[in-house]
Automatic annotation (TrEMBL):
Record protein name field: RBR-type E3 ubiquitin transferase
PANTHER family found in the cross-reference section: RBR FAMILY RING FINGER AND IBR DOMAIN-CONTAINING
Leading EC class: transferase
Assigned EC number: 2.3.2.31
Family annotation (InterPro entries): E3_UB_ligase_RBR, IBR_dom, TRIAD_supradom, Znf_RING, Znf_RING/FYVE/PHD, Znf_RING_CS
Domain of life: Eukaryota
Amino acid sequence: MGKIHKEFENELEVEIEIIVVKHQMRITGEKMKVIQCEEKIKENWKTMPKLILPTSNKGNSTVPECVICMNDANYCLQGCGHPYCRDCLIQYLSTKFDTSLGNEKLKITCVVDKCNSLLLIRDIKTILGATNLSKLARASFQAFLKTDKDMLRCIGDDCNQIYRESKHPDSYVCDGCSKMYCVKCKVEYHTGVTCESYQEMLKKREEENRLSKEAMETHGYKPCPSCKAYIEKTDGCNAMRCNCGIGFCWLCGFTAPRDAHPHFADKTSPCYGKIFDGSNMIPDE
């Protein structure tokens, strides 16, 4: 129908507006051309096949059937008029909450074969509550970000603000976290230091950290499996506890909320009975 209306608009130099909610059509233009357009639309309607909806008989009344489950429908889409039950619509719409969906898979259309009309926002608001509407909006926004490569998330670790890279090729101040970031280096802005110098500093620091790590491990230090702080074990059993509070096994790195001793008494553990392995201490007989 939309294609035919566009042809009428071009032919008669009028503007046709469909007001779906009010079931109205507004034609704007010269009076005679508006009248001609009305006549053409009426003639076109006469040639259109009538919409036949599935129905069920309940007593003396005819009730439309949901096009999905074939039970009684209690809602008709305002765009195309096809009948659904609210439960099926809610279930259908809930499949669109997935934030990993792309734009095409996120499209919400009537499921009737050869219809594929997009659901109006008025339909979606009526069917979904505020919470679910927010979920759908979030999924829609994530799909939009996938298609617009110029829209990027803030570099800050805990910030979800979005910025447009083309408007900030070098640096930007985030409206969300109020911090300034270097776009090239992807870090908080390094005032007074060029990007080249900053990158050299990073490489030097990474090399120093690597050498320090190798030296620590050569001398018997091991990193805590949780906080990664290096720990030296000079004596005692293999059940360790870091200052961060986590308990862990010195041999295999197994972690426990506080105490790793039960790990050595567990017969399924690879370290069963090895609580003093490698230690200078001799367990009491």
